[in-house]
Predict the 3D structure of the following.
Amino acid sequence: MADLCDLTCPLCHDVSHNVASIENYCSDKRRDYFQCHQCRLVFVPPWQHLSREEEKTHYDLHENSPNDPGYRQFLSRLADPLIAQLTPGMSGLDFGSGPGPTLSVMLEEAGFEMAVYDIFYANDVSVLQVDYDFIATTEVVEHLSQPGAVLEQLWSRIKPGGWLGIMTKMVLDQAAFGRWHYKNDQTHICFYSRETFDYLGQYWGALVQFPADDVVLMQKPHNN
């Protein structure tokens, strides 16, 4: 294991000049989990991440598709409250759309112009150079090795007054984390809480809403 003094938070070290202190949050037989005192992110250290090839092999097993009513119902937890904030005709990006893009289809059906991006399955970086009225990302941010850099990039592509919608299961407390099956997926390397998203909201000057347990909506200031 590398020296803990050399470990920096993958979220807030990209957006802060003050490196937050980090402590061991939990350990099991396979991995260690650290928590940043500043943004409260819990994360797996880089030396315990899967390789890119191992990660893709795991994602290739996913069988999600727009034809699966259960998957649509799952995604509606983000789609419905996000749609309630939007006007048909607005443009959006489904970031991390996966091998069977579905959220983008649902939003197109609701009257929005959609682009998709996925590092493994739709790696057209040109869509990351466009500004959008909203960006949605479902079950993606927990997989990011550099969430600070990625979320900053996405935020920079949202128009003033626009929305970032995120769905990910959230950390409740240390005791619950130790029993949490969600942490056992080896592709899950970052774990967020409401405190983490409140931190980002304060940094960005964003309006933060939690319409469901695993969903956060963040509105960009109109003057930004």
Q: What stands out?
A: Helices lie at 52-59, 69-83, 103-109, 147-156, 174-179, 194-204. The beta strands are 22-27, 32-36, 42-43, 91-95, 113-117, 132-138, 158-167, 190-191, 207-212, 215-219. Residues 4-219 form a domain with the Rossmann fold fold (CATH 3.40.50).
